[in-house]
Amino acid sequence: MKRTLTRGLMNLLPMALSLWLFWSLFESLDGLGNVLLELVAIHPAFIGEGFLLVVALIFAAGLLFSVSPFTWLWGKIERALMRFPLFKSVYGSIRDIASLMNRDGKPKSQQVVLVRQANGGYVVGFIMTDAPPKPLQDALPEGDWVPVLFQLSYQMAGVTSLVRREDLLPVNWSFEEAMRFNLTAGISTH
Fold first, then answer.
1. Total-model pTM
2. Which element (helix H / strand E) includes 170?
3. Which residue of 42, 54, 101, 141 is most buried, as measured by CB atoms within 10 A?
């Protein structure tokens, strides 16, 4: 009986939590859109009208960011707000995570690699970019160094280490599958 309950829980819980998360996001965005509609004295006629408004506003913002004067103005506002240390930390982190999700035309060069450890074991890592920033290149000894991300299990955090390219063993494995392997400490197989 315990095994049957566990099997049911392990199969239903991920789906239930995913659906709940997406429904909560939908309701939140719909509520925000409804507030905006009511500000201009329009009462929502159907469920999802506020959500559609928010999606349309995000699309319009995307169009605005393709226009140089608006991008210039946004950059100016961003730089002004970056003078506040707490805002700079929070905003910078969120912007960096968002940019990881949208590479917008940049090549996705994440390569899965194995890095040999001193004890003879290997650690799964990810080459996220082909070269370290110039200040690090200048400080490092001669060699072809690359930043390698070592993702920590069950966390969004990871450790970036600079490793010589010749010490890396490339792996023919998709980034998503290898990341899932690392994030779940090898428990997830699909």
1. 0.56
2. strand 168-170
3. 54
